[in-house]
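Q: what sequence does this backbone want?
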């Protein structure tokens, strides 16, 4: 069971416009939960998402979906 925490969000990029914040925890990428993945598997999932990606994250207070990101 792994938890992946966001370390950096670049201003002016889709993730920042979508509301992703430093210290958020990833719950799922494109509907696929990430708890049983290791870091290389998560990176591969993100890199193969194409031009859009949907994330669900935990902010420490609540779980929410921050929608699609378009590259």
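A:
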């Amino acid at each position: 069971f792994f938890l992946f925490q966001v370390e950096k969000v670049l201003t002016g990029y889709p993730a920042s416009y979508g509301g992703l914040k430093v210290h958020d925890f990833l719950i799922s990428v494109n509907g696929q939960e990430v708890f049983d993945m290791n870091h290389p598997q998560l990176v591969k999932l993100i890199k193969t998402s194409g031009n859009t990606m949907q994330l669900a994250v935990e902010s420490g207070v609540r779980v929410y979906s921050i929608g699609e990101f378009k590259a």
